[in-house]
Amino acid sequence: MRRRFETLVDRHGGRLLQLARMMLPSVHEAEDVVQDTLIKLWDELPRLKKDAELGWLLTCTRNACLDRIRRDQRQAGLRRQVQAVDRELERHVDHGDPDTLSQQGERARELHRAIASLPEPGRSLIVLRDIQDVDVSTVATTLDLTENQVKVYTFRARRALRRQLEETCHEQVA
């Protein structure tokens, strides 16, 4: 098994790295993906048919690259969402009376906490649809959902956010 593994790495390792480098922004990420693929190969090798080796390696590498790209996009999207919420909250702050400022600041923090506590994809949908005013079609593409899912999940996220904010308001009054 070890000899077969080494032969496959020698024969196809460069091709896998080339594929990963074409798909990913950095050499380091490409090398990580290929290394992960080779670890999977080692585990899968006893069950892998000889005539399917190259196809399996290329598919595994491609899928790992796509997973990495999606993960990076989600992380970048979350950073943008937090920044957008901060900008939106700042926009609504009245720079006047200190008591009013304090109340507005507290409400903004409550809203920020409530949005941040929503599970995905609800959090992303609230930010994209309600704060950034992104159209349904673009949101669907961005989050890999259907347009109908975007509408339904947005409705549910708004309802959850409303309930959470109502609970917070009732706790403060009581």
- What fraction, in percent, of the residue positions are helical? over 70%
Main sheet characteristics? none
The parts where pLDDT drops under 50 for at least 5 residues are none
**What is the end-to-end distance?**
69 Å
Number of strands: 0
Which architecture of the largest domain per CATH?
Answer: Orthogonal Bundle
Keywords: DNA-binding, Sigma factor, Transcription, Transcription regulation
GO molecular function, one term: DNA binding
InterPro entries: RNA_pol_sigma-70-like, RNA_pol_sigma-70_dom, RNA_pol_sigma70_r2, RNA_pol_sigma70_r4_t2, RNA_pol_sigma_r2, RNA_pol_sigma_r3/r4-like, WH-like_DNA-bd_sf
Family: Belongs to the sigma-70 factor family. ECF subfamily.
What do you see in this structure?
The protein folds into 2 domains: 71 residues, Rna Polymerase Sigma Factor, Chain: A (Orthogonal Bundle); 82 residues, Winged helix-like DNA-binding domain superfamily/Winged helix DNA-binding domain (Arc Repressor Mutant, subunit A), CATH 1.10.10. Helix 1 runs antiparallel to helix 2, helix 3 crosses helix 5 and helix 6 crosses helix 7. 83% of the residues lie in helices and 0% in strands. The radius of gyration is 24 Å and the shape is elongated. The protein is built from 7 helices and no strands. With 174 residues, the protein is mostly helical. The model has no long low-confidence stretch (mean pLDDT 83). Belongs to the sigma-70 factor family. ECF subfamily.
